[in-house]
Amino acid sequence: MILHTVNKSPATSSTLKECLFSASSGDQILLIEDGVYAATQAFSELLRDDLSYFVLQNDMAARGLNSSLISEQWQPVDYQGFVELTEKADSVCSWF
Amino acid sequence: MSDLLIIFRKPPVGTSWAREALDLALVGAAFGQQASLVFMGDGVYQLLDNQQPDQVEQKGTQAMMKALPMYDIDQIFVSEESLSERGLTKDQLGFDCELIGQTELQALLKTHKQVFNF
Amino acid sequence: MLNLADKQIPTDEEGYLENLSDWQPEVAELIAEAEGLELTESHWEILNLLRQFYQEFELSPAMRPLVKYIGIHLDKDKAKSIYLMQLFGESPAKLASKLAGLPKPTNCL
Prior knowledge:
The structure holds 3 protein chains of 3 kinds.
Chain A: E1 2-6, H1 15-22, E2 28-31, E3 52-56, H2 57-62, E4 74-77, H3 79-88, E5 91-95
Parallel strand pairs in A: 1-2, 1-5, 2-3, 3-4
Chain B: E1 4-8, H1 17-30, E2 35-39, H2 62-66, E3 75-79, H3 80-85, E4 98-100, H4 102-111, E5 114-117
Parallel strand pairs in B: 1-2, 1-5, 2-3, 3-4
Chain C: E1 2-4, E2 7-9, H1 25-34, H2 41-57, H3 63-73, H4 81-88, H5 92-99
Antiparallel strand pairs in C: 1-2
Helix pairs in contact in C: 2-3, 4-5
């Protein structure tokens, strides 16, 4: 399983799209930095249903994104959660 | 199977991403680490022929790309979907590479322990 | 800094030329002298080929690609790292690049 991190807003960059295109079934996606905007409702249609989705809480909070703004597929994690995801993954691939 | 997978996703001019990614491939090769290269997204624009980056006072990557065979790097792939999204076909490219679809791309990521995204 | 006749040629701290256009054969002789090396025809054959490599690919080659390039353009017997080491010592790619007025190969230590 690969952990993919994405740090660009989906509205200005095709980074998320390219990541989702390249991920294999069962892989995990983690949004960080401006990538967290992808967790909002407007972009939920981009998502595939064979991947798991995480979003870094600190980067959400920093941008005023609370849980009411993000769609239900996304599970917030803190830095500790980020580390744990990294440990569980066979490899980490960062999309920027 | 090669040791490194390097993904080229940025256009050739304006930033140094393309050159950095190629440098990584060449450094790897100089140390006996075989690299495979994948061009996708705007990275496919790196493969267009007749680029003249000197027109905007920059250095491109085309000359460096030609050096790849000298470094025994011959696993060079381009995403079919990225090309067609941009209205391009393989024969419009200035560089010989292998077309791959989504499944093959996913398999490449899966089978490489070290994936570098540029 | 190298002093060639009445001209000063800037180099970096390792002795590589700052401006590739400053290079001329006399510059190579000057660097060779400082490195305790006497340039023979065999050296020049490699240096000229290195400059050709740089013109073609816009980069200074590491050892392996240099050897491969030699194999394509010169006698096969010369396409060996031992041959280059006999000519240029322990780090042939680095020293030869310096003599040929090219940047230090970034892809070799």
